[in-house]
User: Fold these one by one.
Assistant:
Number 1:
Amino acid sequence: MGKKVKEVSVDHVDVLSDLGKLRRTITKVAAVLAFLAFADIIGGFAMIDFALYQYAIFFNGGVLLLLLIIGILSMTKKDDIAGILLNLLIGPALFANIWLYLGKEIGIHYFIVVLAVLPFVTINRQFKFFQWLFAVANIAMLTLLLNFETIGSINGLLPPFIFTVFNYSAIGMSLLLIILMFMSYTRMIENYEAELKIKDDELKIMSDEIRKLALEDTSTGAVTHRKLEELIISEIARSDRYDTPFSLIIFSLSDIKEVFAVYGQEKGEKIMEQLVQIVRNDLRLVDVLGRWSDGEFLIFMPEIKLHQAVYVAQRLLKIIAVIDFFPKIKLPSNFAVLQRQPGEKYEILTERLFELIKKSRDEGENQICS
């Protein structure tokens, strides 16, 4: 039976999604609005009494510096770190200002309401712990603020028009951020719905093409080499457009040439026909089995990743190994499996496939290479 089939590990390829781009955009906007809010706070303290509120000014100046660093991290696409730091910073910093100096009458506390939502749209879903931690912490801050008196307040020291402008600015920036998040996610959902419709149409077209292209090899009933080639080239274009995977399996019976030599062409073709029927019974309806050459068969598997295709190949190898082929003979087989890499051309794809099946044969009978 030969060596044991090797297990294959598949590297996960992280593709930047629309959601990731949107998350980075909202993080940048939130950082800019927070920067403006803290700059307003510094200006208010400086206008009232710089000497008296110098510690508050220096504290908020440090917050501005950290917001600049967050902006730089976001610009360099380190948005996971930027999102976590943003939520870690602005919630406690705003609360500290309100609690110690500004008082509940200042509209800046509306930002804390926004901050209950912000973690879920600025932090990657891989870091769910941080999403919930910051959201719950900000809700707790707001609850504490609304139910207890703040230690001090500068409300009486502010001119009425400054107080009014400050409040409306804070409320306006909060509403702007909420509107941005709502519009962005609505637009993203609409885009996904449109993409899904296009993809559904493409799948229908692809299904029709499969039926049209599925001209069978007259001797075995498998799809012909030419039609397989057209189908793979068509799928490469679709894969590039929608970033969808597909895999190929090529296989052959190791001693098939000797079988043809001993039993003749007619009996040899009956074995090949039997092989096609066995393999077809173990595939999905959308998978396409074709005759690649006289002794080789190829399986085209759309929307399938490498580890899934390897599992299919392992199953087929075990099935073929126990089958009695006409006229009651057992034949070892060799398999090669690959997943098309992003941007890979048809020529490179098939060249890799031939190298893998050659390696499988060089390693002995009943081998799978991937």
Note: Confidence is low (pLDDT under 50) at residues 1-16.
Number 2:
Amino acid sequence: MNIGKELNYQWQVNVLGRSALRLNRILMARKAGKGQLGKSRLLTPPLNTSIWTKELIGQHYLRGRYANSHGKVAWVTSGAPIEFLKALDFYLLYPENHGALCGAARAAEGLSIEAEKAGYSRDICSYARTDIGAMLSGKTPVGRLPKPDLLLACTNICQTVLHWYRVLAHHFQVPLILIDTPFIYTEMTDHAVAFVKAQLEEAIIVAEKVAGKPLDPRRFKEVTRLSMLASELWLELLRRNRHRPAPISVFDQFTQMAPIVEMRGEASTVDLYAAMLKEVDQRIEQGIGVVPEERLRLLWDNLPVWYRLRYLAEFLGAHGAVIVASTYTNAWAELGPQMDPEHPMESMARTYMYPILNRGTGEKLATMRQMIQDYHLDGAILHSDRSCKPYSVGQMDQRDRLMRQDDLPALLLEADHNDPRSYSEEQVANRLTAFMEMLEAA
């Protein structure tokens, strides 16, 4: 260990950085106390605990800025089994989460263009183009990204990650671990679980070599336990929207889900969601809804439109509509019941085959139908995402079946989760207006 670099890491991250982030949290809390945080005449102010979320995200990327001088770094896909890496003390960077942050910060278009100039097609996932553009240009809203010592890609979300991470491996000249999860057409078989478990066992050997130390079984179980607890708390947060009026919207969930994706296995994530759940319960007791005059309750399918979250929330809020459930945010809540800290290897194999994109389109339709009942929904918006084809496949049939078989009004809304060049404000506004008029008439 380089003593000078380690001292600089501790000074920059745990002294200066934490102090600055904590001061910012205090200042934001004061604004929240005065009703000055996220002011909107159409929506209830955001949760006070959302300030804590921002602090945790800030700490995460601050650690990343100096991570290479402190320990080993792994870049991982959002649905990857990361508990063994966390137990080996890798700093984990999620390029998809970084891509979403770039989208929300309106930096994704410029970074995508950087990738396209290098020959990458605009038809590729806009997360991939955003991060390849950041890799090639060195530009990022978070200041600097750490160089990976290891890459981990899991095919349970899409096949794009396989090719995307091969590009990263070639660029950085580091090992790439691929976890190939069999697609679940009907049910999860013991053979499929054994197949994924064998890959995980091989992956741990590679990760131990890069980390320079063996995996501690007790630490592995503890990280798995923390992941399970965070997922269970996240599930309870989502379920609170069964109440009317809904205490938070899916747009809130989109911004509050970052820790469950990129900070699973950390005690701070469990503490955050426990505090958030308590605040949401207080809202329920006081009858506070995210839309003060809630009249319509909707479902959202697919990824968010990161660069227009506020606009969409206020547009719908003006019509008394709130999106209370989402297949996307629910995907992270579903993982908790699959986890078993006492059997972390088999547990991981089962858990990470379970994400919604690794199951048939009929499974997603069944999930939406369950949400219609549980959340008492009046309609559904299916985001037909130009660059997330695995999530968008089957949506036309799903919309038609919801309308014909479930008598639920459903809208197919065309956009892109990260690239504003594939988004038409006028078209979106016209379609949403017509949809709201139809729902209000009904």
Note: Residues 3-441 form one domain.
Number 3:
Amino acid sequence: MPLACRVPTLCPRLYVNMHPLLSRLRYASVGVAVLLSGCNMEVLAPKGDIGAHEKSLILIALGLMAIVAIPVIAMTLWFPWRYRSGNKKATYAPNWSHSTKIELVVWTIPAIIIVILAAITWTSTHALDPYKPLQSDAKPVTVQVVSLDWKWLFVYPEYGVASVNELAFPVDRPVNFEITSDSVMNAFFIPQLGSQIYAMAGMETKLHLIAREPGSYEGLSSNFSGEGFSDMHFKAIATSEDGFKDWIAQAKAAPVALDGDSFKALAQPSQKVPVSYYGQVTPGLFASVVNKHMGDMPHDAASHGEMPMDSHHDMPMDMQHHEGGDALPSDGISSITTPTQAEK
């Protein structure tokens, strides 16, 4: 076709014929752009060691799947073309039923992929165990996380402060999370730092993360937990050591203290809760939240080195006595057999 015919003004008939197709393509492109605008690729833009390892696993798994998926898609397009009714060169074999070569390809390649995936899964599961502390010369920061309806409470036991829906920590220092829930099950997740782990009432889960770049990262609950779930977000701020000290000082300056009464008020269901700080935190608050949901199960609250607040009042009645009817000692927990003691 001459070059001039590609110009609509010189070839109006061609332009008229192609105009509906071009319009459809234009609208389709807009639709795709709108749909993709809602996609969040934070998992593929990691800012910490754990997130970087998980990104590598995603890409490796994607590549292994592509080994099978791409040839299958290509053959899906090639076979109808190759064996169309108008192709007289294609072999017509209506009674064909077996090919050793095809069987070898169909079974050998997936088997090899499964073996590779099994090896990767075994090594990465141990290497990325969320309970495994990160190797670092820097002193870790401990943060106790409590999932509430529908907000996140972060307690810094070493500094005696707490915050709601905002988390801060220094860059290049491991963060040791101790996580529980005062309500239904939730899932604690900072996509750019990696690893999701559940927050469950009466249980303490652990997570170890580290940030390598300063910034403000999105945190969320990735487990549906009721009416206010969609707004259950928080900011994870990775900052310098000086920036972290300033954040702690800002929290200490807050006039509000977090004790038993203020915690009960905070624990009431609420949505879109703004960021707030507590300048003082009653010692043992996190342990008391865990203990009050444990019923009559043995527990190891003493291993935290903290005493539950008002343990006799917060514990259910069946925790006040052992099965034999013996009253608990005054500390409420010292005579309960821990899992470690039971093993011994």
Note: The longest strand covers residues 141-148.
